Automatic annotation (TrEMBL):
Ranges for domain Pirin N-terminal: 61-139
Residue ranges occupied by any Pirin C-terminal domain in the UniProt entry: 206-308
PANTHER family registered for this protein in UniProt: PIRIN, PIRIN-RELATED
InterPro entries assigned to the protein according to its UniProt record, in alphabetical order: Pirin, Pirin_C_dom, Pirin_N_dom, RmlC-like_jellyroll, RmlC_Cupin_sf
Residue stretches spanning the membrane: none
Source organism, top-level taxon: Bacteria
Name of this chain's protein: Pirin
Phylogenetic classification of the source organism: Bacteria, Pseudomonadati, Bacteroidota, Cytophagia, Cytophagales
Family the UniProt entry places it in: Belongs to the pirin family.
Length: 337
């Protein structure tokens, strides 16, 4: 029986398997910013401002008007895991929490019973470009946890372990372990109500960088888990001896060791794995529940309460340019880096 189940071309967003809902990968070569951390008016010409998802000049504004990003919007019934590989992300939410995270940091947010948040990408550099590279992964919640209190946690880059593997030829593979465990190396704890909080659910989130010619084996995990490998940057790799070009999703058996040999250029992968929740999934935009009636109830409640309202003056909240990496939690706790 082949260890590879399927190979697919990556689309947008990336297709995932239960317990994950999808993954959005954003790579934007933003230009130098103006004094307000935004894009100059002459660079915005011809864009459908507020709905700019088509790459033009190497970047997109998304729902932003002056500053790229996603102004406040609601979520209910699932979690977001936002992995920052390059650039700046400013977070604000309806609980009054806020933060700024940068290269190597990860934000893990449980939407639970409902939250509004914004994710903006301020262009801090006025004298050079502002490249941004992030993943946003949607991880489902089981019915028992869909209405928990919302919560967010920062996994700062200093606390996220990396596994470095040197093969027989001296070639290196580096794995950032965001969730789960590889060998003796474990990730930081996720949010407390996450499906990933129980080790029996075998949730793993890893980013992988392989030198040209490097060889590495992804170790087996729980046989009941789903495993998705996103080869998003590079030339080609061999997975279990099968040559696969970049821009591919490889669904592999989680209960088997998976050998990977890189080709002639650096290769980058995102790996998601975990036991499926195996419950009905009904999604309507930013709401993910188990039934259509629960979706309707989410919409009614948001219409009445706005999930607590928006405590900020702006729709597109960005923090001061000289602000470093920080997280201000709803209970007043302040973390700075």
């Amino acid at each position: 029986m082949s260890k590879i189940k399927t190979i697919k071309t990556l689309g947008f967003p990336w297709e995932t398997q239960d317990p994950f809902l999808f993954c959005a990968y954003h790579r934007d070569e933003y230009p130098q910013g103006n004094s307000k951390m935004g894009v100059s008016v002459d660079q915005l010409g011809g864009r459908p401002i507020g709905q700019d998802f088509v790459v033009k000049d190497g970047w997109r504004m998304y729902h932003g008007t002056d500053i790229p990003g996603f102004p406040y919007h609601p979520h209910r019934g699932f979690e977001t895991i936002t992995i920052n590989k390059e650039g700046v992300v400013d977070h604000s939410d309806s609980l009054g929490a806020a933060g700024r995270f940068m290269e190597g940091d990860v934000q893990w947010m449980t939407a639970g019973k409902g939250i509004q948040h914004s994710e903006m990408f301020p262009l801090l550099n006025e004298d050079k470009g502002n490249p941004l590279e992030i993943f946003q992964i949607w991880l489902n919640l089981p019915k028992a946890s869909k209405m928990v209190e919302p919560h967010f946690k920062m996994l700062w880059r200093e606390a996220i372990p990396e596994l470095s593997h040197q093969d027989a030829a001296g070639k290196m593979t580096t794995v950032q372990i965001i969730a789960g465990r590889l060998g003796e190396v474990s990730a930081p704890s996720p949010t407390p109500d996450s499906w990933a909080a129980n080790p029996a659910h075998a949730v793993g989130v890893y980013t992988v960088k392989m030198e040209a010619g490097a060889v590495w084996t992804l170790p087996k995990t729980n046989d009941a888990a789903n495993r998705s490998m996103f080869f998003y940057k590079g030339e080609s790799i061999q997975v279990e001896g099968q040559t696969i070009p970049s821009g591919r999703l490889i669904e592999a058996r989680a209960g088997e060791d998976i050998s990977i040999q890189n080709g002639n250029k650096e290769a980058y992968l995102l790996i998601l794995e975990g036991k499926p929740i195996e419950e009905p999934v009904v999604q309507h935009g930013p709401y993910v529940m188990n039934t259509q009636e629960e979706i309707r109830e989410a919409m009614r409640e948001y219409g009445k309460t706005q999930f607590g309202g928006w405590p900020w003056k702006e729709r597109e909240v960005v923090h001061a340019k000289d602000k470093g990496r920080f997280a201000l939690h709803a209970d007043g706790e302040l973390e700075t880096k």
